[in-house]
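COMPLEX REQUEST
Ligand: 4'-deoxy-4'-aminopyridoxal-5'-phosphate
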Amino acid sequence: MGARPLLNRRLAGMGTTIFAEMSALAVATGSINLGQGFPDTDGPEEVREAAVRALREGKGNQYPPGPGIPELRQAIAEHQQRFYGLSYDPDTEVLVTAGATEAIAATLLALLEPGDEVIAFEPFYDSYAACIAMAGAERVPLTLRAPDFRPDLDELRSLITPRTRLLLLNTPHNPTGTVLSPDELRVIAELAVEHDLLVVTDEVYEHLVFAGTHHPLAALPGMRERTVSISSAGKTFSFTGWKVGWVTARPELVAAVRTAKQYLTFVSAGPFQYAVAEALRLPDSYFDTFRADLTRKRDLLSAGLTAAGFHVFEPQGTYFITTDITPLGEQDGIDFCRALPTRCGVVAIPNAVFYDNTEAGRSHVRFTFCKQDSVLQEAVERLAKLRSS
Ligand code: PMP
Ligand code: GLN
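STATUS: Structure written out below.
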């Protein structure tokens, strides 16, 4: 087969995701895993029961319809109306996907031509770079810089070129916890309209905003027609393994995304779609309690990390805390995270892997707090020993 690499050049260097690498390290070393963002407690019992019921009743055990089961599309439309006053037609403006991950992939594969430029805030979620590359497009990073991790909107304006096709936004933002403010969203919307750009918004942490509220960009003037909004059940309902996600957008955009999606998975997660339809209709008390629980966990981990000597950047949303390790006499987050399991039995994620400009995130390390209080407590006690080691 000669000297030609087996992996195509678009994916060259992308190797194994940091989440897989670090979760495997956690298992191999028996460490507490505050790396990959998945809860250690399942979501609501009634939602789990709904999945069991669907399985037993033979609902979704065979291929569900390509766009998703009607019950779920209806529930997604109701959710957008209930929380944001956004109205979507469940038949033409909603598409169910295999998690937000497939929604992102299908959207980028559908909307991009080779050579198009995509502006995304870095640090970016790892699948963005891979999907932009698979579409043959080019990513153009706008760096969110410590300590505030706010986007510099003048810089955003300067990055737009005639080749810019799309803005890829993530709010609340993984890993920094930044939540875009109404003013920032307004400027971004104005730029999108002025330059006739498409916008893709990854809103998987929409129900995890601790300060203020989540504002979908699609609700701003001129944005509904050019925005593909993406979310998923994984984070909101603590069932990350079910992989039920969705897209809401105007019919032409949904049709484009569906065209790509049908050749990726065609359909997925039949019985779970029924359960997520019920989950989306849970009363407000579910969403309030979920956020209150995570707020408490955030405070617990934040205080523990501070006491252990980390510099903590308080997140406004998501279930991640980004820290700076320089107060611990450390410089390199990647080296630090590789050594951490053997040093003290905790796993974290180095933010540097989410950057093109790796220097901007070199000393930043992310911890998740979607774990039981006792686990977070034990983790911070272990981390507290770092200073003496
Ligand atoms: N986007 C972001 C910002 C994420 O953190 C994640 C991880 N849940 C995803 C997308 C993927 O979501 P899903 O598990 O629904 O594919
Ligand atoms: N979204 C999760 C995180 O940021 C990881 C999901 C995955 O492993 N791809 O930790």
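REMARKS: DSSP finds 13 helices and 13 strands in the chain. The CA atoms of residues 228 and 249 lie 5 Å apart.
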